[in-house]
Amino acid sequence: MSGTSAGGAEITYRDAVREALREVLQQDPRTFLMGEDVGRYGGCYAVSKGLLDEFGPERIRDTPLSEAGFVGAGIGAALGGMRPIVEVMTVNFSMLCLDQILNTAATIRHMSGGQFSVPLVIRMATGAGRQLAAQHSHSLENWYAHIPGIRVVAPATVTDARFMLRTALLDPDPVLIFEHVMLYNMTGSLDPAADPVDIDRAAVRRPGRDVTLITYGGSLWKTLVAATELAGQGIEAEVIDLRSLRPLDDATITASVRRTRRAVIVDEGWRSGSLAAEISARIVEQCFWSLDAPVGRVCSAEVPIPYPKHLEDAALPQTPAIVAAARSVVGR
Amino acid sequence: MGIFRMPSLGADMEAGTLVEWLKQPGDRVKRGDLIAVVETQKGAIEIEVFEPGTVAELLLPVGATVPVGTAMASIREDGAVAVAPAPDAAAMKEERPTAAATMPAPQLQVPPPPSQGIKASPAARKFAEEHDINLASVPGSGPDGAIVFVDVEAAWQRQGGAAATTAAARTGAKGDGAPVDGMRAAIAAAMARSKREIPHYYLGQTVDVTIAADWLAQRNADRKPEERAVFGALLLKAIGLSLKKYPEFNGSFADGRFAASAAIHLGMAIALRGGGLIAPAIHDAADLPLDQLMIRLRDLTNRVRAGRFRSSELADATITLTSLGERGVDWVQPIIYPPQVAIVGAGTPTVRPWIVDGVPVARQLCDLTLAADHRVSDGHRGALFLRAIEALLQNPEAL
């Protein structure tokens, strides 16, 4: 897997996230990183390796295994004027702090009549593919994309991994950053010209005229491979990387679908009530009279993500399924 | 149960778009009532009912474009339901509750399902509607053979759509009738068919209309503008009366044979402000008193220019008059509107020198022409027909 774009230094996604953390920690004394195993262990995905030595235990803080506690502490710190970056090991564990995120972080601006804001960034790993079984592999970012009052982003490229954090910290409200576990080892070339990046808009990662493939995060690379395969079959697919899951960039999506008249959404979440379902509804609402085929979806099988490799692979959106879905809506 | 279907409003019509229902389920209708407005290439047309009854169900949604012959509404015949006996009364008479089981079940009125079996994408449907493409005639290349955008676009291009000027951005304004490009296509189809199929012959006669013009001027002098008659009305009346003696110019030619029409419905070619023209009929023109004829002519012209006319007016004409009177040309060599078999042309009446009793005098002259179908009539009869019109115009008070 490779997130290559023209020019720029080669860097892994993991290193890009670490560089982003180092940069903000160096530049803004109000920032600190807090989470399980982020300090001495260097992060369960080795993202924060070396940061404890560089910034010390005040700013790289290991926490107890208590998501509700340390996310709540992060909210308090943000209310108190800090710019905390809280790491939740995987989105599965974030169910323990869902109350803090939904009932506190997302609501305080509203319930205080705008007197308080929560400038908090929460980073979470998401997704499957590393055989971590059903309690560490789900893609629940859609649950957060449902909540007004927070912003949800999903960097899929090393450039977005490198630069989205700083933009997120500028936001006066909570921002959740979802990092797909299969991306950490990916190498790509960093595009310094992209700095600073916005966190509002979707990006067209590949132009095409026959069908729009809409995806984000870890599925982007499978989708780009599928687009290459489709090109070999004479179907030019446009690939949209959502980047922001809340708010959704309707303008980019509809402009593309109105042109191609066909859409397939690739989403590692479960199909029922998925982000793909929301995007599909918006396409039908806004592009109905431009459509040439029903909107297609490629989602995860509706099972707890299995442990065995072959079953895990079978449960997730894979390139052949994306190719098949695209061909089906194109009709050839 | 009668089924009301999308009528054919001309030989060249393949499909129509339902614009408005003028009746609702439960409404009583009689023959000739307006039931719907349908948009065709010729504009918005008010469609009439043929069978009396009660509207049972409307089978088409407004906006639907369907081929000619598609069921639009079901109409229950009067009394069809009333004959069903009331079960309660019958049961009481037999004094046995179980008797109800022997009662004939009331006939269930099951309307046919809407016959919209065409699988087409929203994008294809929208394009087809905007460009008057009949989806039934478009082969599909999409998923499961569905008709998709490019299929309709290709069909449109085959029909010469792209060439039909950039006016493809249809004006659409109901006010001036119809999309000009669609109308141009309809005229093209009808006139090409006429010239391809009908062996025209042409006759011309310069007619002294001084008496008629003087009589009209005198008659109009003490009338309000809206009550005045125009020369065209006189001409229509004269043509209508002449046709009674020359029925081979009044009717239609189809399937290799001529069918004379007992009724005389005079088509009147009317130019539209937005371009194009239309020739709707004045029904039974020969038997209308001149004043009535004038009222009908004025009403028809106004409605046509507003883009509203009735299906029967469009489909029923048995002969056409094209009068280029206002255009200031001496004569016109007209083209028959199929399946009609004759068309009369009239140039502008002008004052010209004319020999009367061996002396050149200034008279009001009008050049009448006749184009007729040689499969049906010959020049000899055509000449007599034109002469008959001429003779009637010499005695206008009798018209």
Write the layout of secondary structure elements.
The complex is a heterodimer of chains A (332) and B (399).
Chain A: E1 2-3, E2 10-12, H1 13-27, E3 31-35, H2 51-55, E4 60-62, H3 67-79, E5 83-88, H4 98-105, H5 108-111, E6 121-126, H6 141-145, E7 151-153, H7 158-170, E8 175-180, E9 187-189, E10 203-206, E11 211-215, H8 219-232, E12 237-241, E13 244-246, H9 250-260, E14 263-270, H10 275-287, E15 296-300, H11 309-315, H12 319-330
Parallel strand pairs in A: 1-9, 3-4, 3-5, 5-6, 6-8, 7-8, 11-12, 11-14, 14-15
Antiparallel strand pairs in A: 2-9, 7-13, 10-12
Helix pairs in contact in A: 1-7, 3-4, 8-12, 9-10
Chain B: E1 2-5, E2 15-21, E3 28-29, E4 34-40, E5 43-48, E6 53-58, E7 65-67, E8 71-76, H1 87-94, H2 122-130, H3 149-158, H4 180-197, E9 200-208, H5 210-221, H6 231-245, E10 251-254, E11 257-260, E12 266-268, E13 270-271, E14 277-278, E15 281-282, H7 290-305, E16 308-310, H8 311-315, E17 319-323, E18 342-346, E19 350-356, E20 359-373, H9 379-393
Parallel strand pairs in B: 5-16, 12-17, 17-18
Antiparallel strand pairs in B: 1-8, 2-4, 2-7, 3-6, 4-5, 6-8, 9-20, 10-11, 12-15, 13-14, 18-20, 19-20
Helix pairs in contact in B: 2-3, 6-7, 6-9
Provide a concise account of the structure shown:
The complex is a heterodimer of chains A (332) and B (399). Chain A is of the alpha/beta class and 332 residues long.
